[in-house]
TrEMBL record:
Top-level taxon: Eukaryota
Composition bias, Basic and acidic residues: 233-251
Cited SUPFAM superfamilies: Aldolase
One record GO biological process: carbohydrate catabolic process
UniProt keyword list: Lyase, Schiff base
Protein name stated in the entry: deoxyribose-phosphate aldolase
GO cellular component: cytoplasm
Any GO MF annotation of the entry: deoxyribose-phosphate aldolase activity
Length: 260
């Protein structure tokens, strides 16, 4: 995994200047959707690469240790051996990027991966996923417990109430506390863009999270409207290139994406 991001001091004057031209973003999203996909052998290469970016995920109420064990086996062997041999990729060690589970299942995942002789990282959602509507003290403790159990990445959900009411300083302070609670574990913030009300809020929340020191960010759509998902994806991809070059940060898009 990459090194941690340092973050920066909160700059509310920068946040106050953020505006998003929604019609332009929607047009650009449609253009991207209309592009021709890669073909033939290039498609196979892209698909194999995509597998290595996946957080193989289970976030079900009926998860058990046996479920987690099967998931870990699939993460180590995501593609059938005969297909890999046909592509001459059987000796490349292709695995998924990580396993993602609830905090209470982190121990099961760590144990299963160790038994399989595999060093795939374990990620854990936290901070009251998916709603984030629990007390801050509880959310911080959930992070600490997941890290103690062996999680090397923590996927936190932001407090959408703070975004919708414009409490940017409070949002920054919360994420800074999440960063501290993670210790040596990496921090990913799930923005839940479908619940942020506008593309301008998506942009502002993303910038606040980067200022606060996240390592990666995820759009975290939470099953909202398709149009908003597409446009948010485009806007989020562009906003990691700050207009103010003096305040650039190394924070990037997530190195892996959840799939269950």
């Amino acid at each position: 995994m990459s090194a941690h991001q340092r973050g920066m001091e909160l700059d509310l004057s920068w946040i106050s200047k953020i505006q998003v031209n929604q019609p332009a973003v929607l047009r650009r999203a449609e253009q991207i959707q209309a592009r021709r996909p890669v073909k033939k052998e290039w498609q196979a290469a892209w698909l194999l690469k995509a597998v290595t970016f996946i957080d193989l995920t289970t976030l079900s109420g009926d998860d058990t240790s046996s479920n987690i064990q099967r998931l870990c086996y699939k993460a180590k062997y995501p593609i059938r051996e005969d297909l890999l041999k046909a592509l001459n990729m059987h000796d490349k060690g292709i695995t998924t990027a990580a396993i993602c589970v609830y905090p209470a299942r982190v121990c099961d995942a760590v144990k299963a991966l160790k038994a399989a002789g595999c060093d795939i990282p374990v990620a854990s959602v936290a901070t009251g996923f998916p709603a984030g509507q629990t007390h801050l003290k509880t959310r911080l403790e959930e992070i600490r417990l997941a890290v103690e159990d062996g999680a090397s990445e923590i996927d936190v959900v932001i407090n959408r109430t703070l975004v919708l009411t414009g409490q940017w300083e409070a949002l920054y302070d919360e994420i800074r506390q999440f960063r501290k609670a993670c210790g040596e574990a990496h921090l990913k913030t799930i923005l839940a863009t479908g619940e942020l009300g506008s593309l301008t809020n998506v942009y502002k929340a993303s910038m606040i999270a980067m200022m606060a020191g996240l390592d990666w960010k995820s759009l975290g759509f939470l099953f909202k409207q398709l149009t908003q998902r597409k446009s948010s994806s485009r806007r989020d991809g562009e906003e990691i290139q700050p207009e103010n070059k003096e305040k650039e940060t190394d924070v990037g898009k997530p190195q892996s994406y959840g799939l269950g």
